[in-house]
Amino acid sequence: MREQSLSIIIPVFNEADNIHPLHEKLSEVLDTMGRPYEVIIVDDGSTDQTAARLKEVAQADNRVKVIHLRRNFGQTPAMMAGIDAASGDILIPMDGDLQNDPADIPKLLAKLAEGYDVVSGWRKDRQDHPLKRNFPSRVANFIISAISGVHLHDYGCSLKAYRKEIIKGVKLYGEMHRFVPIYATWQGAKVTEVGVTHYPRVHGVSKYGFERTVKVILDLIVVKFLDKYAQKPMYLFGGFGLVALLVAFLMFLLMLYLKFFAGKSFIETPLPLTVVLFFLMGFMSIFMGLIAEILMRTYHESQDKPTYIVDRTRNCDSGD
Asked: Is 224 contained in some domain?
């Protein structure tokens, strides 16, 4: 049985001083493992000397593949570009700022060999600013775990290991690269985490801030919606619409009661306007649900996308 090949995926943005040290550390670890590998570095529109450094590394080592994006798209699109270009059996994304330790890669692979599909790094001793980085990260991790039901200590750690079949079909947007373990769990994959080393940044400037926590939470809402209602959006929109129509009906009854039994004129209360408001909200929500249903069915049927995922088969034409 052949050794599974590795694809190391590294998005970088203005990391010129880290390129050569990163390549040296990666080569030192990967060359001793005896596995075929490739290193895919995605330059996310850097404006410093990152492109020149990457050219030097790629010329010296043909196992290094470099992808230059035309402008700065962000970490998730850069990660997606690397995933699309990867040919390895196991995909290992990591940061390019030398805060992840390449020496942890064998630890991830050993855990993967135990039968897991995704192994996520956990920076137990994180070497970042306690208020600007660590505290917002803890808050985000708690919220993500609570909402998703997938309990990991460190969603923000880029160092992870995925089996190719788990991640290759996933499309990532916004800040959603950190949610791949959630996608994988919802599809029946086995996910775990291991402690990894984390170093303080030596070169360059961090591109993270508190605003990313807000973006992550908003993206999580999208992920949760896609999990629960992507195939049946009418359940969400229609459910809200029916509740709004019920509220409108009850307020209409209250309006009639006040008119005929309490002597209150319609114009003496805000109930008529409230009835109209909730009726329109209910009608529009149900209408939006119908449109969403049409879009969902068009998406699946026009591209022949199934609404299920097959794990394995036996005695079928497609193989065992």
From this structure: yes
Rg (CA), the chain: 25
Candidates 181, 80, 81; CA nearest to 121 is 181
Asked if the structure places residue 253 within a domain, the reply is: yes
59 vs 39: CA distance, rounded Å: 13
Instruction: Give the number of domains in the chain.
Output: 2
Q: pLDDT tens digit string along 216-264?
A: 777 777 777 777 777 788 888 999 999 999 999 999 999 888 888 887 8
Q: What is the pTM of this model?
A: 0.72
* Integer Cα distance of 175 and 61 in angstroms: 31
When the pLDDT of each residue in the chain is averaged and rounded to a whole number, the result is 83
Is the CB of residue 233 less than 8 Å from the CB of residue 286?
Answer: no
What do you get for the CA distance between the two ends of the chain, in Å? 18
Based on the fold, state whether residues 42 and 154 are members of the same structural domain: yes
Say if residue 288's pLDDT is above 70.
yes
Quickly list DSSP for 12-26. Answer: ESS-HHHHHHHHHHH
Residue holding tokens 């330059």?
Answer: 43
242 falls within a domain: yes
The one-character DSSP state at 5 is P
Question: How many CB atoms are located within 10 Å of the residue 174 CB?
Answer: 16
pLDDT band with cut points at 50, 70 and 90 for residue 311: low
Residues 76/170, Cβ–Cβ less than 8 Å? no
Q: Is the CB of residue 75 less than 8 Å from the CB of residue 44?
A: yes
Strands (E), 123-259: 160-163, 191-195
Handedness of CA 145, 151, 157, 159 (dihedral sign): negative
48: tokens are 């410093």
